[in-house]
Amino acid sequence: MEIRFELNRKEVCLEAPDDRRAVDLLREDLGLTGTKEGCGAGECGACTVLVDGQSRLSCLMTAAQLSGKKITTIEGLSAEGALHPVQASFVEKGAVQCGFCTPGMVLAAVDLLSRCPNPERPQMAEALSGNICRCTGYKKILDAVAATDTKTVTDFPLPTKMGEKDVPVSIPNRTGKVCPVFLPESLDDLWPLLSKHPQARIFCGGTDLLVWIYHRRVRPQALICIERIRELQGVVKTAEGVWIGAGTTHDSLLQNRTIARRVPVLVQALKTLGSPPIRHMGTIGGNLMTASPAGDTLPPLYILDALVELRSARSTRRLPLTDFILGPGKTSLAAGEILFGIVVPKPDELPLQYFEKVGLRKALACAVASLAAAFKLSEDGRIEIARLAWGSVGPAVLRLPEIENALTGQPFCQDTLEKVIPVVREHCSPIDDVRASAVYRRLVAGNLLLRLPQAFSFSGPVAE
Amino acid sequence: MKDKRTYQVGEAMARSDALTKVTGEEKYAIDGVGPDFLWAGAKRAGVPHARILRIGTDSALQVPGVRAVLTAKDVAGKNRQGVIRKDQPVLADDRVRHCGDAVALVVAENPSALEEALERIVLDLEPLAAVFDPEEALAEGAPIIHPDHQGGNALFSGEIRNGDPEKAFDTCHASLAACFELPRQAHAFLETENGWAIADQEGRIELTVSTQTPFRDRMEMAEALGLSPDRIRIIAPYCGGGFGGKDGITVQSLLGLAALHCPGEPVKMWWHREESFLAGIKRHPARLYYRLGATQDGILTALSARIYFDTGPYDHLGSVVATLGLEHAGGPYRIPHTHLQVWAVYTNNPISGAFRGFGVPQVTSAMESILDMMAEKLNLCPLEIRKRNALTRGDRCPAGVTRQGSVGLLECLDVLQSHPLRKTQSEWKASAGPHHKRGTGIACASHGMGYGPTVPDSATAGIELTAEGKFQILAGVVDMGQGNIATYLQMAGDILSQPPENLVTVLPDTNRTFPCGSSSASRTTYTYGNALIAAAETLKQRLLARTADFLMVPDTAQLVLIPGGIRHIASGKEFSLARLACLLNPKERSATHHYRAPVCQEVTQADAGLRLCGFPHLIFSHAAHLVRVEVDELTGQVSAKAYLAVSDCGRIVNPVNFSGQQEGAVAQGLGYALFEDCRVENGQMMTKDFTTYILPTALDVPDIESATVSLNEPTGPFGLKGAGEIGIDIPLAATANAVQDACGVRFYRFPITPERVLAHLDK
Fold it and tell me: CA-CA-CA-CA torsion for B725, B727, B728, B730, nearest 10 degrees?
């Protein structure tokens, strides 16, 4: 297809296979080898580029998704002789060793400083947590970000030319079959595509699907990318609660005030999801459609009794999220339907909300167990409402109404929680895998309850 | 941005290579890309041990775009590669010995055709009994992996005895025994194994490859493929990480074979992450049985150690790793009575080989753990027991060799002792919040530098005044990221009083630079640095002498080098280097120097096999580390919260590069302690990506402080000693000791995963 986009502030228009990975297009076809590839699965950040100023992973983007975007690669950051202030700081502070993570790391830092000119050190570490460095131990990288003169970042004149190399107009298709990638921008555009390509895989973010495709675990005949559909974007306060468009990215949700105020448990979960570039790309709808018991947004939405809104060309229907997700990778989405939105009814009735994920590290972690909790307590410290959901402890997210009921009316304290732990463990049916054993997951699923008194820092009277 | 300052040794100057790396201009091997490139890929065995009956290639050959499908039959040479024992086939011939063995090689016009063809190759394999545990592999009746090897599955074994350990154990006040298990760590460099090659019609091959060992690779490739070494040129750009994982052949021979079959066309081979996990080498997993004896005062008297390294199916550098482990088994302490034994054992697991630390992290983990256990038993503070036993110059180490050269361990311990992290460790311990425990741990190590007494640890440096009046340094030893080449420029720039812009480098290239050995063994800056100093001094004296002639001054005493020229101090007259260059015969404008590192002359009782594999070393770096941890009792998660590394690596040429090496090594060591474990079940790699093989992110590594005691090493270039490895020897042991301090749990199996912690706490 013809792909028109802005590359390092230069308009380019080229003919390329739709499904070519953006990283291959940049590196192999356009010769911009400053963008590196370290894992091909979104787990290292070496291929980071800026898309409309935001860090994204070019190994998890098709060429088609570049269209209409402003792309900045490391080559577009500095012109002959004049380093971008972040680059200058990296050189000065000794933040470069082998240098293979450096382009991605620099771009991630540019992204951070453009949004947040004076970050604290933990914020810097958080912002760079999607970029693995195997050489430096990160200290000098954080030193470099801290030492960057942020005023010069905003004032720095980015070079206007892309470099000597002329962009070819046509990228030969050397791989035979091309899987077409469609990018509808409205529902009206989508429905005819769906009926014309019933076998197409739909994606919205692609942080899972494109990994599977690259590793030849799935081989779709066509791809429909719905992340640009206007109607799927945003958060709306409604009479019944909060509506979230399925195509809203994790990062947009984290920036959203309504979500921050009314659904803090979702915010806590989103903060642990993947890494900054993954959150720039991935969407809440995509997370639900993957239907993994380790999906970070699932336990919060389960305790909030969220509903999903499904649409097809002809109809709209709603059903509880718990009925929608049938098992790992399985949903009750019908042919011709898409996940349109998520409804969170009356989150305000649950004033105390908490999410904790236990992963194998502090970022880029898949949950080996997680807990979402929402409580309402009486003034004398009794539990009026308790809702609990566990991730990664069974084939689906686990909610236990009998435990919620048993807790209701009890004093909110360590003893009460300890009493239900054995029952929780009994109901868990986790798997043994390379990340953790079933025994561990079961132990932790119970233990996490003991964090709640501290998490809710409840200091009121506890009923006897 | 050009740094105008003249290079000076000791100054924290920006690295010369940082500029091109930070802009993305630097071309790594992986950046050889183009529309005309062919792609080569290997069919991997997929089973751990089998006899090859047939390799069906017909269907693969029919895939459009496939140029060649090659098997062992197409390898003209010995089809064996390796550094010490040449036991690894380029393409498996009679049998496969681990799942990652390359069985066939496909060359295709694009990656999809390559993948398709690889999937279509049919392997007809007859399974053989396999063995996955090193001790089982040594037992009677175990399946033999290399029937042609005299020692059965023992690739290598070594033994050192000093004093009378049996009697010492009988008479000591306290003794302790424990068994430790260390995991298989992946280098996980971001640039996976790769390269590209082009052959001409006469069969000459030029390879650009991500390697630490271009000159040795050329010899190995030549022998394996049946070529004369002068037919092979290897160019080694900066590596996107190495850490030992590119110390030896990865893609080289396969690429050479592919290129020979498609002359005139560039061929690329790039192991994707999964293939790197499967077929690339790893740190040796190890099982170590330790027994330590001491007096009531905590004076160490006896040590016995039996150490098993799982080397996988091929030597790689297994025997040398085992020997270095044996030499360091007793740590940097005086222990008069020792019995140390080591085995490097063939198994059908993935291949083990060189990895930063090279056997020392494994033994340090055991020694420093059992030493803390002894301190606890004797009610001594961990710092005190180390100070009472620390080696000083002239002492014999546990392997029985006199410690010569600078020995700064006690100085390191003094710095550690007076540091706030140490002084406030009880406040730290008492400050843990609900469901958390906090603790502090320390550990020490020494690390020998260089190849040891037998294999020449040498380098030939070249430096040349170019026609433009700049200095060009021929650096024949690879920079895999550690900054050795920038350090060379700083040394030469200091000697010649030049700023960065007047110095240029030629990166390792078997046609353009001189053999300099490998980028490994903490010897890269030491050995080449010494060669370079001599070459630069020679050239400097020659340039001054010629200038004295041109300026008609009586001698060189009044001449000094200044940036871009030479000044006659008495008259103020200047002579530019560019002018000098065009007046000199090009042959006079360059100097070379060959340097061979000194070796330990002490003859111990140890057998000749150990000497051949590098025992003993002469020069050692030392370090003492401290880590603060926090343990979450609900989840078992351990976080490192603060870290101090105090090092004796001689004088420091560039403080920023130096601390960068220590910080990076510590982060890698913390990964080894807490997260990193290539899980292998029945020979199959279970952790094949970065979602299951866990590397520390920016959120997982604490602030790391690097301090130094800058003793002078008289033989070192500008007084330095090796600094690249010692930092990774210690973090695991320090962390284990800190976890014990925090929650009273002693770890014997690593890494210290949340699961293992919780299992202990739950008891």
Answer: 130
Q: Which residue has the tokens 């006897």?
A: A464
Task: Give the tokens for residue B314.
Answer: 């091929």
- A96–B18 C-beta distance less than 8 A: yes
Bridge pairing between strands A201-203 and A223-225 = parallel
In this structure, which amino acid lies at residue B165?
P
The continuous run of DSSP H or E covering A106 comes out as helix A102-115
- B386-394, long-range: CB < 8 A, 24+ apart: B386/B333, B386/B413, B386/B442, B386/B444, B386/B624, B387/B413, B388/B297, B388/B298, B388/B299, B389/B298, B389/B299, B389/B300, B389/B333, B389/B334, B389/B335, B390/B332, B390/B333, B390/B334, B390/B444, B391/B332, B391/B333, B391/B334, B391/B446
The span from the CA of B621 to the CA of B649, in Å, is 5
Show residues of chain B in contact with A33, CB under 8 Å: 24, 27, 30-31, 33
Query: CB-CB: which of B481, B659, B754 is closest to A98?
Result: B481
What is the average pLDDT across A284-306? 98
- Print burial letters for B468-490: b (CB count within 10 Å at least 16), e (below 16): ebbbbbbbbbbbbbbbbbbbbbb
User: CB–CB of B457/B592 below 8 Å?
Assistant: no
Nearest CB to B690 within list A44, A77, A81: A44
Closest to B29 (Cα-Cα) out of B270, B248, B250:
B270
Question: Scanning every residue of chain A, which has its alpha carbon at the shortest distance from the alpha carbon of B276?
Answer: A39
Residues β-bridged to residue A383: A377
> Which whole number is the average pLDDT over A34-58?
98
By C-alpha distance, the chain A residue nearest B274 is: A39
Instruction: Render B3-53 in DSSP notation, one character per residue.
Output: --SPP-TTS-PPPTTHHHHHTT----GGG---TT-EEEEEEE--SSSEEEE
CB A430 within 8 A of CB A398: no
Cα B288 from Cα B290, distance rounded (Å): 6
Query: Looking at the whole model, is its pTM more than 0.95?
Result: yes
Q: Considering CB atoms only, which of A88, A90, A434 is closest to B687?
A: A434
Cβ within 8 Å, pair B23-A77? yes
What residue has token string 């500029």?
B19
Q: Name residue B574's beta-bridge partners.
A: B567
Q: How many CB pairs under 8 A join A and B?
A: 252
Q: Which residues from A are below 8 Å from B688, CB to CB?
A: none
Which positions 111-150 of A are in contact with B (Cβ < 8 Å)? 124-126, 128-142
Cross-chain residue pair A102–B22, CB shorter than 8 Å? yes
Which value does ipTM take for this structure?
0.98
For chain B, 763 residues long, the average pLDDT of each consecutive 10-residue run is 80 95 98 95 98 98 98 98 96 97 97 96 98 98 97 97 98 98 98 98 97 98 97 98 97 98 98 98 98 98 98 97 98 98 98 98 98 98 98 97 96 98 98 97 98 97 98 98 98 98 97 97 98 98 97 94 97 96 96 97 83 96 98 98 98 98 98 98 98 98 96 97 98 98 98 97 80
What's the rounded Cα separation, in Å, for the pair A1 and A30?
16
